[in-house]
Amino acid sequence: MSHSLTRLPVDLAQRFPVLIVANIQEHDDSIILRSAQAIAAVLREHEMEVELVGSLEEADIAVSANSAYCCAIIGWGLCENNQDQALKLIQLIRRRTAQLPIMLGMSQAHQSQVPLAFVENIDGFIWLPEDSPEFIAGRVEAAARRYLDSILPPFFGALVNFAGTHEYSWHTPGHTGGTAFMKTAVGRTFLDFYGEQMLRSDLSVSVGELGSLNDHSGPINEAEKYAARVFGADFTFFSVGGSSASNEIVLHSAVTDGDPVLVDRNCHKSLNYALNMSGAVPLYLRPRRNARGLIGPVPLSELTPAAVAQKLADSPLATDKTARPVLAVLTNSTYDGLCYNVQTTTRELSQSVDRIHYDEAWYAYARFNPLYEGRYGMHRGERHADDATVTVTHSTHKLLAALSQASMIHIRSGKVPVKPALFNEAFMMHTSTSPQYSIIASTDVSAKMMNDAGGYLTDESIDEAIAFRQAMARLNNEIQQRNAKDWWFGVWQPDQIDGVPFADVDPQVLHHGDAWVLRPTATWHGFGDLGSDYCMLDPIKVTVLTPGQTLEGQMEDSGIPAPLVSSFLSSRGIVVEKTEPYSILLLFSLGVTKGKWGSLVAGLMEFKKHYDGNSPLEQVMPDLVDSHGERYSGLGLKDLAEEMHQDMLATKMLHNMDAAYTLLPDPVSSPRATFACLVKGEIEQIAVRDMVDRTVAVQIVPYPPGIPLMMPGEKAGNDKKAIVDYLLAMETFDGRFPGFEHDNHGVEIERDSQGRPTYKVYVVKQ
């Protein structure tokens, strides 16, 4: 996918060596070897770096480890007797760096022997020794220059070249390329830590050559158009406020006071704040939950026109029962990695709404691997004239390669044509007039990376996730064969694929989406009948299960709560994404390296050894004992696990959590009206134990899973007291297990003289 070329500055271009793959085991007087060495010498005279490797195996390692070459020359002598291996090397280069020039080095006498499979995948031949080293080096240099000048995407290319001009600036930002920081000791330390290049590229809208994010002009406009083509959108907007700001932009562009909006209850809190700002009347789509507390998709039955009409009729906040919802919002994929068949959800919801928004914050990579086809908003499938307009937000920094707060908004016009200039009015409400240009550049680079090598990058993540999943299953099998009463960590995944145990399935089979679909008759997922192709588990989002709860959700007599495992792993430098009472979520992102998961398996095995031996906490978690010596001194790891498990049994934490998220609180007033009470001071703070039948003034969001338990303007009566009981169970746990406290947005903790916590929340005054 082409874009206007931007020249790569010489100082950066020189960091891209020429890769020469030649048989350096040849005799010293070999004419082919002497020719390769002569070419390398001339290239070095032209100030080009050269990396010479002596075998196809070494070349494979080099290309796998480094994508920054400017040209590859492969000697036919190595290929001739190892054609399959040579083709695999060429295919690897093409997958990693699609446009990298590849040349075969040979004598003209051998040209007719080169098979079609090679000719189709290379960019030319160089004749050894017929052509002079100077002539060949000139051809290589020209090909390399053309390639290098295609590397930079629009905005990043303009930024790189502008930052290299070393002009004096008389505009913001005031540090003027970092020089202001040099005037004090702390400033100099800041400069040295981040580097001059980052500060020289910290520019402002005053630099007209770079365009404007607010007006979407110049190179920024080119970058957004390029990203739209890469991600399959009609229009793309770059956002520097993360997908939180992007979600708010989308809702503000489509929703006004009193408009009914269908909202996935399993949504990010930014969407809840957007409901507040826009004045929407929320009609909640209730997702399924399985017995282990994992939050699943909204079933198709919730999306039908009849179900939508019933939600509108039942809402005490909707005054016009004939009004058509203006927008539907779904989270795709869910936090736990469940992905919708988006073509199905779009067709179903288009009967009831004119706009659909898919929050795909954790899912920006989906378009670039066939495993996910049809399961992301900007899918490659058929578009229909009566489809709703679709928007998608990506938190580009989460699982692609971009800086924090980098985000994209993708738009496909449907029933409601989108005019970018008008959409930009909502965009301007949630963006800065002084955006951080490095964030914009990283978004631009992320799009280029996925266009160049998205298939390779996603395959690598999927490969590693599958390898980890199968390794965990094999370890479980071996442990059970040795001792059927022994234990190991489980993984939430299919038990078998087409009758083959998961551990033994060909990994290539697991590269197909069919292997991960939640089948109606399968018991492993626990969501029942969702339809034959409605929902799929994303293999790179791996949920590890700890003992203590059966697949059916029954609590066992003993167990190992996951917060203890996560804390142990953290003390070993292994930080997980999310921890539930008896499960841990791991993300195999694009940044994963081969075999990295081995340290995770080793950490889990170390935990098992210490648990089985009831090793003293002073030995295995010394920082915890140092911080809370009176509580944990003298305890073993197994002792603490058992105490935690028994506490969860006594407070019925899992039962109350399931009930709390299954029940929807009663809406009393809209989020916007409730916020007005907060601003006017018409609220008060009370203990959670007293909040039955009280209208909460702020959203209450336990982390994890980061899903609203209660929204502003809602109350829980005695019939929904499980919501309060769940919060009280966490309060009790926090009091008994310091160092393992829960994180609940909207809940403040007040401690007595003994350090015991009381959860407090803000409610509307009666």
From TrEMBL:
GO biological process: L-arginine catabolic process
InterPro entries xref list: OKR_de-COase_N, Orn/lys/arg_de-COase, Orn/Lys/Arg_deCO2ase_major_dom, Prn/Lys/Arg_de-COase_C, Prn/Lys/Arg_de-COase_C_sf, PyrdxlP-dep_Trfase, PyrdxlP-dep_Trfase_major, PyrdxlP-dep_Trfase_small
Recorded superkingdom: Bacteria
Residues modified as N6-(pyridoxal phosphate)lysine: K398
Residue stretches making up the Orn/Lys/Arg decarboxylases family 1 pyridoxal-P attachment site domain: 393-407
GO cellular component, one term: cytosol
Keywords: Decarboxylase, Lyase, Pyridoxal phosphate
Pfam families: OKR_DC_1, OKR_DC_1_C, OKR_DC_1_N
GO molecular function, one term: arginine decarboxylase activity
PANTHER family (UniProt xref): BIODEGRADATIVE ARGININE DECARBOXYLASE (PTHR45229:SF3), CONSTITUTIVE ORNITHINE DECARBOXYLASE (PTHR45229)
Family: Belongs to the Orn/Lys/Arg decarboxylase class-I family.
Protein name (Swiss-Prot/TrEMBL): Arginine decarboxylase
Species of provenance: Pseudomonas frederiksbergensis
